[in-house]
Amino acid sequence: MTIAAARRLTNGAVCFVGIGLPSAACNLARLTHAPDLVLIYESGTVGTRPNVLPLSIGDGELAETAHSVIPLPEIFTHYLQRGRVDVGFLGAAQVDRFGKLNSTVIGAYARPTVRLPGSGGAPEIASQAREVFVVMKQTTRTFVSSLDFTTSAGRPSAIITDLGVFRPNGEAREMVLAELYDGVTPAQVQAACGWPLRTVATIATVSPPANEELRVLRDLHQRTKAAHATRVRITLPTSGVR
């Protein structure tokens, strides 16, 4: 899934990156076929080239390796709203058949079962980047017929999952299955989809990961794990705190 997502990024593109799987895919692309990829994170870091995957947009690794750090409002007004972002790369907790995204709550908004991190810049990225890619694991809990909350209106060019790739079809922009990984069947995708699945006429097969792609991705995750394990941890006292 991460490799299939990374392959969609072209060298030199300006990419607004979300944390998690989108960040892994973008940095994999930067370390392989797209060395001049310009990564922008919502904390204001532009042209960042992290050596390890960040834990959040506030991770110091992003600022330390960035070409520049600018005020957050300028990220949106002078980059995103002026059409200077080629790709917005997002994740979500839920997606529906039209590519709308939920990253706010699971359950009723007033009394949710789970309160999620929230929108951040996702609504603006989803509506104003030239292209939008979404990467997320596919289950009936994530691919739902009706969102618990609409965080981003959504108009993704592709949704890359651990089973295949969806693309918008027609003016309604319903997300339909367009590509499958080797060994995955449409029936398996339907079993993990909360709406009646539609497909393109001829479903393509995603090329399997190359050895170099796997090596770079594994090395990136190993370096990330080692770096985060050595970070200073602050332990608060368990008593006597007011």
Number of strands: 14
CATH class label: Alpha Beta
Structural class of the helix and strand makeup?
A: alpha/beta
Order of helices and strands: HEHEEHEHEEEEEHEEEEHEH
Strand order across the biggest sheet?
2-1-5-10-11-12-13-14
Low-confidence stretches: none
Q: What is the mean pLDDT?
A: 92
Q: Your description of this structure?
A:
It contains 7 helices and 14 strands. The chain is globular and about 45 Å long. The protein has one domain: Glutaconate Coenzyme A-transferase, CATH 3.40.1080.10. An 8-stranded mixed β-sheet has the order 2-1-5-10-11-12-13-14, sandwiched between helices. Strands 3-4 form a two-stranded antiparallel ribbon. It is an alpha/beta fold and 242 residues long. The model has no long low-confidence stretch (mean pLDDT 92).
Strand and helix map with partners:
Blueprint: H1 2-6, E1 14-17, H2 21-31, E2 38-41, E3 45-46, H3 60-64, E4 68-69, H4 72-80, E5 87-90, E6 94-95, E7 101-102, E8 105-107, E9 112-115, H5 122-128, E10 131-135, E11 158-160, E12 164-169, E13 174-181, H6 186-191, E14 199-206, H7 211-229
Parallel strand pairs: 1-2, 1-5, 5-10, 10-11, 13-14
Antiparallel strand pairs: 3-4, 6-7, 8-9, 11-12, 12-13
Please tag this protein with its features:
eight-stranded mixed beta sheet, alpha/beta
Task: Give a concise summary.
The protein is of the alpha/beta class. It has helices spanning 2-6, 21-31, 60-64, 72-80, 122-128, 186-191, 211-229; strands at residues 14-17, 38-41, 45-46, 68-69, 87-90, 94-95, 101-102, 105-107, 112-115, 131-135, 158-160, 164-169, 174-181, 199-206. The radius of gyration is 19 Å and the shape is globular.
